[in-house]
Amino acid sequence: MTKARLVIVGNGMAPGRMLEHLFDLAGDAFDVTIFNAEPRVNYDRIMLSPVLSGEKSYEDIIIHGDGWYEEHGITLHRGEKVVKIDRVGKTVTSEGGIVAPYDKLVLATGSNPFIIPVPGHQLDGVLAYRDLDDVDGMLKAVEQGGRAVVIGGGLLGLEAAAGLKMRGMDVTVLHLMPTLMERQLDPAAGYLLQKELEGRGIEVRCGANTKAIHGDGKVEQVELEDGTIIDATLVVMAVGIRPNVELAKESGLDVNRGIVTDSAMCTSDPDIYSVGECAEVGGRVYGLVAPLYQMAKSAAHHLCKLEDNDFVHAETPTKLKVTGVNLYSVGEFGDGPDLEDVVLRDANRGTYRRVIMRGNQVVGAVLYGDVTDGMWYNEMLKSGQDISEIRDTLIFGQAHQGGAAADPLAAVANLADDAEICGCNGICKGQIVKTIQDKGLTSLAEVRAHTKASASCGTCTGLVESVMAITLGDGYAKKVEGMCGCTDLGHGDVRRLIKAKGLKSIPAIMQELEWKTSGGCAKCRPALNYYLLADWPGEYKDDQQSRFINERVHANIQKDGTYSVVPRMWGGMTTSDELRAIADVVDKFKIPDVKVTGGQRIDLLGVKKEDLPAVWADLNAAGMVSGHAYAKGLRTVKTCVGSTWCRFGTQDSTGLGIKLEKFMWGSWTPAKVKLAVTGCPRNCAEATCKDIGVICVDSGYEIVYGGAAGLHIQGTTKLGTVKTEEEVMEIAGAMTQMYREQGFYLERIYKWADRVGYDTVKAAIFDDLDSRRAYNERFIYSQKFSQTDPWSERVSGVDKHEFNPLAVFGEEAMEPAE
Amino acid sequence: MNAPVTESQLDWRLIGTIDDVPLQGSRCVKNGETTIAIFRTAKDEIFALEDKCPHKNGPLSQGIVHDGCVTCPLHNWVISLESGMAQGADSGQTASYPVRVEGREIYLSLSPKV
């Protein structure tokens, strides 16, 4: 009996493994011919990273040496690319003209790296990360030194980055998405990974979109969409792979994303099989080695006419092959409503663990830091074991069944002794602990008296209480109310810890402060976004998706889903030109209602969302900007006509109001802020129920604050009287800044002042001139980043997607666009 | 007889790519009088709901997306992206639509799930 002729196109890991199975099952029943486009034997492609980093050599990663091919009588055509399949005559032809007849053919053409077609992608020094040639190219670049820019923060990109760093290059990773490896890791684990890589000196830029690669013949610079220029001698693109299906397509086989096969790995031609990254089975293509090896096994069994070992999809765990980085991810980790998860974070050890369940089964796990239980979770995932019995302790891992619950005080307990607890008085955790122990203190009042911690603004009270609870154990217990269901920490603690720990992103806060949910909720996300914006001016980038719709589209949503638009009228003053422009906008966009607001400006009600940019463009053209009538920020400065017209007016209240509004507009605050300047004590501008009010008197300006006229009605409290407009401006800026730094999200100025004490505010803003100046300077600094008219930004194209439908079907599509 | 619509009978329409929808955000698709909100979660999952809160018809597409749900911008009802069911103490359901993602491309069926 003559042997069956088996021809394999491709010599990667999948066909290599398939042959091993085949020889085990059928001995030498096949006469095997391999065409390999690469001039090499079969090597372990997933070990390229250790070769790049220098931890292994090429010889170490060879799977099948020359001897193996000889031993099994395999004909290996190296560097011969197959260009044609004759399915009728059953032969393949290579570029070099070699023709090989087959009885069975296996296509294992693998995949091609995806190269982003930005300008300059063909320059010398731009490489993919796919095979040994790429590694050789990178090692040449290493000899020249300089900076390598790795585009793509996925598995391969990060391995390349770590390898190049170990070889001594400066490395920058550019990643389009907000967190690293977003397909395998949730944002919390992605954050930990980023921190680890940054700790190794690798620069990581998430949300970075490459615009162009510059250079004269070879790479010199990489330019980002935001205009950033990075010097580079090497660019590695690791943004993904595409199944290599050209040959199969030209041969008329069924091709979708990959070469379509059944669960036996057989293509639409019963004599042609496909395995590896080029194959699509059950509608999926694969890039990790475990499923590729399973394909190899299925194909081998079916080639031997064994009707078993059909390919079935299984979740494959992901691991990053960077020495010293431990992460493990398997299965689902999304936020489906039928999914439940348990999260365990240990900020001190930098570990994170999340187990995702559907009903009583584990369906996914993400582990960072300590990954020893990864296999255990994966076993449960694969077996579909009912975990209801061990549900309570599941998260603690295999070794801790029946262990204790996590300590809610852990975040505070983990703080170092030199972590600042009380910012006002500069008191560290160690001092508080020592004083409690030395003096035998048992109450908050005693701790305040002896250490001054939380004796000033009081926002760190919760933290001080936590320190007491940890120090005194059962002797002291006081429950702190969490800011939402996602954390037991209150607003004050979160604000303090953001500063104490230097937390600069929402994922960073959620990780370090041990958030109980994976991605927060609609209560905590806007609050955290505000705290970061207020605490890190110019550094933190506003997260639009963590903002309420009004602040995202810069208009007020109404009950029918339309919006209201309020242009700013500085100090309540307007002109005939502005009024004419408003009237024109109302006519042009058929705006149903126009109303004068309580804040002395005009509200256009019932504007359709898609009309917003055009409405703003017309108002901008007439010189008007957003009135921030929707903002947790400065709304209006209400004025009376003052000494300009009024026979009782004592000062230029209108002029001062306009100055204040021009100084303070655009600032984000914990809740809305409304001001008023009234020209005499008759108080026509109603300054005594505003957040900050100014009452002009003959001798100067009386400043009042903490008023409310909403759900709660409260008259203002007097701060003091000053002589000049400049002092008024400084005090208004300083007070707003103090409130910005200390207020809890959605807490108005009067509530903040009630909480921290009116004496405290007066001492810091009125009596202590240095303190006043310092607050005001911080306010002025943060204003540098906030005074951009959001309307003109959007008219010029920012967030365009917000206002246009993604697609239009049905009757509306027939109508011509206006 | 109204037999349930099978997978193959669904009328899949290509509406754009995942990248057209902001992360943890939403975009709308208009189908005649109906507006369908397409949501993208932090994990790149795509869901489609009629853009109407079961409470007072608030536009869900304008809400904050979190943990597989969206919070309505009008009165803070929390709606499941998968089922359209109101969460917690509130009760009601918004129509949800089948979506299919191929590569980065999003396909939407204009017939709501039964």
UniProtKB/TrEMBL annotation, chain A:
CDD domains per the UniProt record, alphabetical: NirB_Fer2_BFD-like_1, NirB_Fer2_BFD-like_2
UniProt xrefs under PROSITE patterns: NIR_SIR
EC number(s) on file: 1.7.1.4
Binding residues for siroheme: C684
A Pfam family of this chain: Rubredoxin_C
FAD/NAD(P)-binding domain sequence ranges: 5-283
Cofactor dependence: [2Fe-2S] cluster; FAD; [4Fe-4S] cluster; siroheme
Domain Nitrite/sulphite reductase 4Fe-4S: 631-765
UniProt pathway: Nitrogen metabolism; nitrate reduction (assimilation)
Keyword Iron-sulfur: yes
GO biological process: nitrate assimilation
Cofactor comment: Binds 1 [4Fe-4S] cluster per subunit.
A single MF term (Gene Ontology): heme binding
UniProt cross-references to InterPro entries, sorted A to Z: BFD-like_2Fe2S-bd_dom, BFD-like_2Fe2S-bd_dom_sf, FAD/NAD-bd_sf, FAD/NAD-binding_dom, FAD/NAD-linked_Rdtase_dimer_sf, NasD-like, NiRdtase/SiRdtase_haem-b_fer, Nit/Sulf_reduc_fer-like_dom_sf
Signal sequence region: none
Nitrite/Sulfite reductase ferredoxin-like domain mapped to chain residues: 558-622
Residues noted as binding [4Fe-4S] cluster in the record, renumbered to the chain: C640, C646, C680, C684
Domain NADH-rubredoxin oxidoreductase C-terminal: 318-384
Domain BFD-like [2Fe-2S]-binding: 421-469, 483-532
Keyword Metal-binding set for record: yes
Alphabetical UniProt keywords: 2Fe-2S, 4Fe-4S, FAD, Flavoprotein, Heme, Iron, Iron-sulfur, Metal-binding, Nitrate assimilation, Oxidoreductase
PANTHER family per the UniProt record, alphabetical: NITRITE REDUCTASE (NADH) LARGE SUBUNIT (PTHR43809:SF1)
Family, per entry: Belongs to the nitrite and sulfite reductase 4Fe-4S domain family.
Protein name per UniProt: Nitrite reductase [NAD(P)H]
UniProt source species: Donghicola eburneus
Automatic annotation (TrEMBL), chain B:
BP GO terms, sorted: methylation; nitrate assimilation
Domain Rieske: 12-108
Tagged with keyword Methyltransferase: yes
Sorted UniProt keywords: 2Fe-2S, Iron, Iron-sulfur, Metal-binding, Methyltransferase, Nitrate assimilation, Oxidoreductase, Transferase
GO molecular function, one term: nitrite reductase [NAD(P)H] activity
InterPro entries referenced in this protein's UniProt entry, alphabetically: Rieske-like_NirD (IPR012748), Rieske_2Fe-2S (IPR017941), Rieske_2Fe-2S_sf (IPR036922)
Source taxon at top rank: Bacteria
Keyword Iron found: yes
Entry-linked NCBIfam families: nirD_assim_sml
Annotated protein name in UniProt: tRNA-(Guanine-N1)-methyltransferase or nitrite reductase
Taxonomic lineage: Bacteria, Pseudomonadati, Pseudomonadota, Alphaproteobacteria, Rhodobacterales
